[in-house]
Amino acid sequence: LGRGLLLVAGSFTAFRLLNRGLERLVPPPPSARRNRWKWRNIWTSLAHSLPSTHSPSPCRFCLYPGLQEDLVGTHPPGAHSLVAVSVGYFLEDFVDMLCNQKLHQSWELLFHHSVVIICFGIAVLLHQYVGFALVALLVEINSIFLHLRQILLMADLVHTTCYRLNSIVNLGTYVVFRIATLAWMTRWLLLNRQHVPLATYAVGTVGMAIMMPMNIILFYRLLRSDFFK
After folding, report:
1. Whose CA is closest to 150, among 68, 16, 31?
2. Using an 8 Å Cβ cutoff, are 122 and 203 in contact?
3. pLDDT tens sequence across 116-151
4. Positive or negative: CA dihedral 83, 87, 90, 92
5. Number of structural domains, the chain?
6. Which domain holds residue 55?
7. Of 88, 109, 89, 87, the residue nearest 97 (C-alpha)
8. What pTM was computed for the model?
9. If 0-12 CB within 10 Å is exposed, 13-18 middle and 19+ buried, where does residue 146 land?
10. Which pairs with CB-CB distance under 8 Å and at least 24 residues apart come from 155-164?
């Protein structure tokens, strides 16, 4: 328990420090200077997405076949630490948005982060459902392209080939690693109802019921913005 909380605190601090120093590492272009905090925020999110994709990659599930059968008590080495680090990042991002963005502009993401922090926090504290959280982190594979899209938009590169290619890959990975992953997680919860305590099942079910519509709505917005404008 203590190690998990230390990892969460250390991750929060590390991402906070990274956020503060990113403007020097990646100076914002003229088009992004009016919204400097957002520029730093997106790059911080991208920094989290890149390492987050290594451990929960599909290959990891092939290397640990037991994970596919038991998402409650089984998880590969390092998975618990990865989930704890992700909790620290989501806490940092939550605080960053709360301090720098108006509530009516950020309430959807704040709500999303609250659900993730609660669900991942349970996995970190109980050392259970880490495999389930690991499946959820497959979403971060798509997040790479989602964050790149925002960076290109802020850099005023929307009419470039790079943006167009990223849009295509973004939508493709969105369907596979967001919508399909969340659908699989929902199915797993329903099929394993008898193996999951009622309180945990309720949290997971509510989480999935919130996440799925939010992600479908975002997919529609991306599709409309990048392909049907």
Report:
1. 31
2. yes
3. 999 899 999 988 888 888 888 889 999 999 999 999
4. negative
5. 1
6. 1-227
7. 109
8. 0.89
9. buried
10. 155/29, 155/31, 155/32, 156/29, 156/31
